[in-house]
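Support request, priority: normal
Reporter: lab tech (M.K.)
Component: structure prediction queue

Hi team, I submitted a job for Glycosyltransferase from Iris pallida yesterday, and the status page still shows it as pending. I've pasted the exact input below so you can check whether something in the sequence is tripping the parser. The sequence length should be 442 residues. Please let me know if I need to resubmit or if it's stuck on your end.
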Amino acid sequence: MDNVNGAKPHFVLVPLMAQGHMIPMVDMARLLASRGATVSFVTTPVNAARIKPVIDDASRAGLPIRFVEFKLPCKEAGVPEGCESFDLLPSVDFYRPFFEAICMLREPLKLFLQETTPRASCMITDYCHWWTSEVAQELNIVRLVFHGPSCFFILSSRNIHHSKVYESVADEHESVVVPGLPQRIEITRAQAPGWFSRWEDIRQKAMEAERTATGFVMNTFQELESEHVALYIESTKKMVLPIGPLSLYNKDTKSKATRGNKSSIEEHQILSWLDSMEPRSVLLVSFGSMVRTRPLQLIEVGCALEASGRPFVWVVKEVEKCAEVEKWMSEGFEERTRARSLIITGWAPQMVILSHGAVGGFVTHCGWNSILEAISPGVPMITWPHFADQFLNEKLVVEVLRIGVAVGIKVPVFRPEEDKVEVERGAIESAIVSDGRRGGRR
Ligand code: UDP
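Reply from support: The job had stalled in the queue. We restarted it manually and it finished. Here are the results:
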């Protein structure tokens, strides 16, 4: 990989500090470096600590990646110290200050770009980092925008926005047909953008910043979304590089196990448990990094898993495992399901699990990385979207690609204040059972 003048290109990657955005960009950094490019990966101390095994591995392998740590001005922006990623923020009230803290990285980034050698040939910056557009223009550096979600979502959101199709609806739960798609897809304003509309000003700035970008890098692939990629190129009149699934950069178990954060379970432990199960029998239940499930809903999921009779790996976050849930689990549930259950509290090595042949189904919140990680090894999904791009991703999985069944949720839930059941155990169990009838992994 050489520039016209024979020098190696230098990519400067600026990911959004959120697991679902950071993880694919770490994969991208390693991919670029393994092809001979020099890479500078902008991060912060807490995020760097989370991916320390990856940093150490890259250095051992001699990959030309520099992990450039900027201090995130949390205090100045009113964000609790140490909360350097969206999933670490104690509540959604800190989202806006967090965006403000990120914007304050403009000057340090500019200084870095002015001083770094070799000079940056290209910046790849997350869609949400609208402020990098100005930096790139001031320093005359080519900038590509990284879109983390599916092209289907990006295209749908763009078409919905430009057509103003929501302006004709009386309430946010009324369905509209998404304009300009090859398929007839219905969506409500509550589902997309839904709750995210409170950051409409940031979205406006991000869309404005897209205009100055040379093109887009997407974590998708032609065979999956060719029609949507073609329509997006037609609409934006810009270059689109579908370079996914980026997760496939990780070939060996160690590399798959160290993505995003330190796993709460040893690789050999999860592998020997999965090895002991029948092929395609196990269901993985995991809702990504941002969703928080309240006790009553967690217990409902547990009851459905028990009733389904299927072996399962269930990922419960530490913040979710309160005394009430612990008590319920220890008063019979764990005992009754012991022979076929593995409960992981904390961070799971998701890619290790999904790529094991014993796994035949995935109850997912429809985060795009999770979907790609299931599609790659051919694991069908039970879709349970919560917010953001997830409802449109569900439409892609269930209605367009037909590789999943919906659990039936219609109204977004993000971090619910109220402890209540959104999806009843019967509905969860039916989705699990119907997935089994579809024959598990294709
Ligand atoms: N992930 C993981 N272990 C966990 C939870 C999440 O490895 O316990 C990874 C998952 O494999 C994926 C990413 O975190 O790569 C989550 O991204 P996604 O887009 O699916 O959802 P988000 O967290 O952004 O809602």
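DSSP finds 18 helices and 15 strands in the chain. The first strand starts at residue 10 and ends at 14. Let us know if anything else looks off. Ticket resolved.
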